Amino acid sequence: MMVLILGLVIFLGLHSIRIFAEDWREARIARIGEKRWKGTYSIVSVIGLVLIIWGYAMARREPVVLWSPPVWAPHLAALFTLLAFILFPAAHMRGNHFKSLLKHPMVIGVALWAFAHLVANGTLNAVVLFGAFLVWAIVDYAAARRRDRAQQIVYPDGTLSRDVMAIVAGAIAWFVFAFFLHGWLIGVKPLG
Fold first, then answer.
1. Collapsing DSSP states into helix, strand and coil, what is residue 2?
2. Which cell locations does it reside in (predicted)?
3. For labelling alongside 25, which of 31, 71, 78, 114 has CA 20 to 30 A away?
4. Where does residue 149 rank: exposed (0-12), middle (13-18), buried (19+ CB within 10 A)?
């Protein structure tokens, strides 16, 4: 469990710099340059992610069961995860309704993904992993909206064609991940 927690501290800590230390972040970028910042950020993120995956896999070997998920939980998780997969590309596409309505669709997608997995898993390691991501997503969303208001950022209206692009891209990615990659990478086939 310690490897999982270390990975979460590294990954979510790094992704929380903008929430809690925006001035420090801006000063580092100014000092070392944006490319070097992004390179270092990416390397540290990958290290944190690898530790999360490795730590979660180790913790799954001796699970501490806290509750038995309801029989409908995997179906709810599949639906929420599909929505999350649609929100991920929507966050990077200009001119879609997801972005204009939600403002930060990727963070909401992370929250949906985390909540879905909390409901569908009843082990301590799942609570630590998905609970940490859910709390982080809520805090990050609040901070991002506060920044938007302070900077008077307005998100333009979306178009149906951009919505369809986000939906199709997200649905295809979800299908590939749910039916092929999840079992191979995570060791669990969520949809049989």
1. helix
2. Membrane
3. 114
4. exposed
Task: Give CA–CA dist 176/169, Å, rounded.
Answer: 11
List, for residues 159-187, the tens digit of each pLDDT value: 999 999 999 999 999 999 999 888 887 77
pLDDT at 120: 93
Residue 169, Cβ neighbours under 10 Å: how many? Answer: 17
- CA 144, 37, 1: angle at the middle one, nearest 5? 70
- Asked whether 137 and 111 are in contact (CB, 8 A), the reply is yes
Per-residue pLDDT reduced to its tens digit, 28-76: 999 999 999 999 999 999 999 999 999 999 999 999 999 999 999 989 9
Give the span between the Cα atoms of 114 and 112, in whole angstroms.
5
Q: Supply the pTM of this predicted model.
A: 0.90
> Phi/psi class of residue 156: alpha, beta or left (left: φ > 0; alpha: ψ in -120 to 50)?
beta
